[in-house]
Amino acid sequence: MAAIRVDELRVIRGGRVVLPDLSCEVATGSVTGLLGPSGSGKSTLIRAIVGVQRVAGGTVTVLGAPAGSKELRLRVGYMTQWPSVYRDLTVRENLSFFARVLNVPRAAVERVIAEVSLGDHADAIVGRLSGGQLSRASLAVALLGSPDLLVLDEPTVGLDPVLRRDLWQLFRDLTETGKTLLVSSHVMDEADRCDSLLLLRDGGILAAATPQELKTQTGAAGLDDAFLRLIDEAEK
Amino acid sequence: MSSRATSAVAIRVLSQLRRDPRTIVLIIAVPCLLEILLQQLFKGEPEVFQHVGAPLLGLFPFVTMFLVTSITMLRERTTGTLERLMTLPLGKLDLLAGYGIAFALLAAVQITVVSVVTFGPLGLQTAGPRWLVAALAVANAVLGCALGLFVSAFAQTEFQAVQFMPAFVLPQILLCGLFVAQESMATWLRWISYALPLTYAYDALARAAAHTIDGRFAVDVAIVCGCIALSLALGAATLRRRTP
Question: How many domains does chain B have?
């Protein structure tokens, strides 16, 4: 069964049709990459999946329930595009607050600090962290409740290659315990690490396939190239 | 509503405040200094200070909490933390109540210090019980909090939020009866005055200070409580799980 099922989703933001008619699926237990240029509608789709986006039509089903329904609030972890943590609190204070809201034991706070490698900065004020540390603090909040589905909007922006590799290893480990991840990115080199890809352009799905399938299908060596060929084909 | 989530929010807001000692000092010291200024200013006519000292004591927390809440809530909206909270098992009322409790506690500290200064060294006398003046001041703080929460929905930037202070609060202070009694106002101003919550907050404070605890006092308190409930409900209505 699919972890996420989007049917004919239509979203209008500020008078502009961002997603005209989008349908896609995300398989359970996989890492699905949501790729596309800025402004292609990635964040809007993600917001619709976590149930904070007002939609004009269509349905979004998450873990068998309508997106945004009450029973999903413990089962879906969401990391917003802009780090949504309290800048005037320390990393640990932030996590302790969200742990109380989620009603998870205090041990979870230490677990997620280790998972995002923020042990050295756990007692630092979030506002004084670097961009990469800040986004990891925000990611840690999403991991707190051990959710079945993690929806991460650009989690690796501003991270050095070592940290990026570590995080992708973490994502991989999570799928091994049956979790599903939807990860958006606008850098193609991350696409190769995904089980499947959703390529988004102008609010529509340009392709939904595995990285290998995309390369074979387009005859391109790299995914960047594959994406370009798909765009050229679509515009013909 | 859950007490766990409510207390989580209250503890978080208080920890945020603890990180900002300068704000706390300003919140507590500024009203004290203003009371001192007032007392010194009217040294020649001590009855003026005796008349406005107690109502002002009760109106400071309204202004402070209005500002603090509208800015904090605006930050919550603009930094994405509100969006995140709306995906979590946290009721809107938990959030509002958490804020209310945290700021009421802060107001209680403010009011305690200002009362000690005003009733002590400054020599303010009241015919009515001082604890009642202080309790009304806490109610005003909660009212300011609830109104601040509501108007934060209409500000996109902190600059705008700060401008709501002169727009929402100053007219209420001017019209509440402190400067000019309702009977001496032009009819249309009197009607506006009757429509503003601070009018009843001021009247209750003045009656408590003068020890005229009568039916009108009970009506005042009921209206203030009603306004708190109404603005909290309006505030809750501006917290949407889904946004455009």
Answer: 1
